[in-house]
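Suppose a colleague, Dr. K., hands you the sequence of a protein chain of 331 amino acids and asks what its three-dimensional shape might be. Before reaching for any lab equipment, you can write down a predicted structure in token form. Begin with the sequence itself:
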Amino acid sequence: MPTMRTCSIFVAALAFVALLSPRAFAQEQIVVSNYGVAANGMPYAVAMAKGFFKDEGANVSGILSSAGGGTTVRNLMTGHLSYGEVDLAGTVAAIQQGADLKIISDNVLTVNEFVWAVKPESPIKAIKDLAGKKIGYTNPRSTSQALDILLLEAAGLKPDQAELVKTGGFGEAVVALNLGLIDASAIADPVWSKNKSRFRVLVSASDVLPPLCNVVGVTTGEAAASKGDFIRAILRGRRKAVAFMVAHPDEAADIVAKAYNLDLDVAKSTINNLIAPSKSGVAYWGPGNFDLAGMDAMLRAQKLVGALSGDVDWSKIMDTSFLADDLKPKK
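The predicted structure, expressed as tokens, is then:
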């Protein structure tokens, strides 16, 4: 028989848990652009599967996927969520239009998921051979359109010295390339790893382009003021996932294959491509530290295709306080 003292302790413990539960055990979703489709979001699949978010104190109930920066920002704000991963241009554009957002981490530091592919028998052997050719990109004002222009610049060519052709997506670019409707196209992993046996790499982004900020971690002004612990836990959990992917690529690939509905070989190829040392020495998936040079370079690229205009004062739209101390900019 339990004693009166034991019962009192048990009741007190239940009361304590009840007081904690709204904060300590509350579940919350996060939103990640193109999660389940594009390579940028793969660390979140690993963090969920390995329990890294929960270990760090963030009870993440699920990950919302959004097609592009504008949709991600809307989901973040209208859903009253605390954290999102968004492309840099979409974030800056939203802030310029009045959205109460802060950039809190620099998550993907390069565009190394991109290659430019041609058919195996193509006479195009070097990027200078793209003069007068048709080059595919996904949609107007997209990253792939901007990268096509940067590639032509790297070859000493102007944008009007080749014909840039809208394909509508990377899968559609594969079809257009195979049918000969275009001569070359930007294709990103994991779509590239699915189709690499059918084409030849003309050049990889890692070989010709500098580090370009790809996606960033974002929060709202409201969440920054009230959900600081949750946000820090998300950044720590994602950082642990990135380190795990580098140390255990095969296990990470197994997790990603399931979460992204990919063949295991495709997931392995994608992860190994993106954790491999790059010419710049800058990692694809970063731990969260800011690379302002890469951010400036991406804004310039987006301005080339009209996705952005005007100047940006990073100090006004960045908040580094959520980063671990070793990742904060040195003063």
